[in-house]
Amino acid sequence: MNISLKTVNLEVSDVSFSRQFYANVLMMKENAGRSHPPSFAYLESPGCAVTLTTPPDGSPVQASRSIELGFETDDLRAVRAAVEAAGVKDIRPQSMGWGDAVELRDPDGNRVIVYQFKR
User: Fold this and answer.
1) Model's pTM, two decimal places?
2) I need a surface site. Which of 1, 3, 35, 100 has the fewest CB within 10 A?
């Protein structure tokens, strides 16, 4: 039996705004055939997809304190420039033994890390 993680589902305050963040800042591609605007967006990145939806009961969205979305890149400088150009204010660079990263927050405050392994 094979099982693999393919989709992360996030409840967001504004699907359109969050879609722009994940598409423009993190270069995810929207799958129009699986998206259902304005309340559901299906975004893909190699190896995993993220769905964005509003809470079905209309309750306020709260950022997860325990989940971090991790994106690997081969050009962390370019990603950081795109993040800054998008107006993301809270960018935290990190350097670890295995490589470098930037941590930021999505529009609803969820933790996002973009990392590049050392070559």
Assistant:
1) 0.88
2) 1
